[in-house]
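Kindly review this record before class:
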Amino acid sequence: MPPPKDVVKIAIQMMGAIPQLIELNQTKPLAAVVKEVCDVWNLGNAEHYALQYVDGQQTYITESNRAEIKNGSILRLTTSPDQEAERLHSGIRSHNLDVKADSLKKLANLSRDITFAQEFINRNGLKQLFLIVEEGNDIGEILAHTLKAFMELMEHDFVSWETLSPAFIKKIVRYVNTGGMDASVQQLSLSILENMVPSSRLLFELVKREVTLDRLLTHLQVTNQQLQLKAMALLIALLLNASDAERRDMMGYLGERNIRQFIHKNIIHASEPMGDEMAHYLYVLQSITLNLLERRMRTPMDPYSQEQRELLQFLRHSAFELESEPSAGSLSAERRRSVCVTEFRKLGFQNYSNPAQDLHRAPPGLLALDNMVYFSRHCPSAYSRFVLENSSRDDKHECPFARSSIQLTLALCEILHVGEPCSETAQAFYLMFFGQDHFFQELFCICIQLQNKTWKEMRATQEDFDKVLQVVREQITRTLSLKPTSLELFKTRVNALNYSEILRLRQTERMHQEETLAVPVLELRERLKPELLQLIRQQRLLRLCEGTLFRKISSRRRQDKLWYCRLSPNHKVLHYGDVEQGVQSAPIESLPEKIPVADIKELLVGRECPHMKEKGSGKHNKDVLDLAFSISYDVEEYYLNFIAPTRYEFCLWTDGLNVLLGREMTSERTQSELDILLSMELKLRLLDLENISIPDAPPPVPNPPSNLNFCYDFSPHEQ
């Protein structure tokens, strides 16, 4: 029969006695249980004893926590908390240094227990610890144990930090500020100050005044990791509890004192690996630093501010200095205004007659203007190249610098969580943040040039602006996830992650998501390819049989003459001939010219085509080159030249002609359609396997049965 739920089987030990195995009835008063245990060992005064866990933190068992006792727990009969508190309270006042040191050491260990802590504090034990520190006669081990015990007792929140005496605080501050002090004492002193800072404004101001930032920076440069950690903890506590103005002043001073270099050299590149707690503090410091940008980020531009208007004019002059300055004095006011409007339009402002309107949205507010000015001052050649290069492009293909800068600044603020409160547990900081001054601005300078590069790779127009920004954002986040150690490395990696690579990664991830990279699925994909390619070939030949209307283009000028070309239904002859305007489809009988497919020798595209090499072909733009193809035929190599009406028709015809020549289809349209067909076919084939994991290897074939007697005999039975 199982024991009742209120009964647990435990072992109880005592020094010098045989352990007891008892069934503890949780409904029985704890004092009665202790009395029974004492009676077995013939111990009087049972009220002077208590039960305590042997393992872990050795917590005292009380009526409030006894429910946590599990079957098989090992407890110890020991002195009760009140008796132990009384004994240690007496021991720490002893004039015998050995007794005093042992008492303080045990006090530091027992103070983690809330029951003991309450008993010790009730005996005014904290006052005795204050006296040990304030008198200052004890140093080294005794002082370390005293501070440790004090910290553990204060953790229980029985006493407010505001009750600390000025003399005690003064001593703690002196331990932090004195060079050559015992490291363990300094660590504990820093922890005490860290706990004082958030408890009240008065204590914050006291610690901020007495422990200088220079002293904390000194502690960050030591090799003792624990001392570094406690110094960083106090620094972070001061920054988090400071007002915005105080925090800005403190961060400005730390910047002047090169805290970034101290962290980079003594913490990040220390010989010992960094712990999770330090990683969290560095994350918080990074977050605090970036959040200094929040004020500018949330401040819209004031069109009446002379300083802000001058920054806008600085951007314009920096980009168009040579164009505007020489003639500026001779221009009328109206003409100067017209020039300004034109130049602000070239800079990429949407409201070029009043560019301040573009910066009225907050976020990113004035932070976007700050970034543009920083880029123009620190990367003047790149800035001028960006603006002038795009201002010389067609309107639809120019990458607007100002609009890009505003949206990119907003994207960077979101990626780096500018203006968001610090997480209490996060440890994700960027190593390169502490390796570079003006991190946000320098990152912007790299990313705005990346945006221009990606814009060109995508051959984007104004309608594609959001799409380009999305790709740039993905390039940035993917590169940041690689945790580059420096901005130079970030720049190298983010520029290597071009638009083509982004498309490839997206495709790979999509395939992973659909489980199409499993070995059996890849094998199925390869088996399906020939069938689907044959389907595409048939479609291409059917399209050639339908025919296409082409325009004739000479080397002198564009002709309005039209001609039609189509493949015979038996795929053996190409028929072509001139047609009248308005004809959409010409029957084969109306096309007088013929080229047997067997006579076709070669397919040429782009600049290889004869009509692209003719005199005057330099006038052909890239759009025409992308649509040009030719076929050479007959022994004497005659040419039939084509200019496809669209890129789609170019792909269909070049693929179809390659099929007729027995070659592979090479157009981008073929690959795109093959991927679509493969994806659709795979989804249909794997529909019944949804949410079923596909193994990489097939299951093993079972051994053949020992006999085949179960087989049905299909031989005809006699009637």
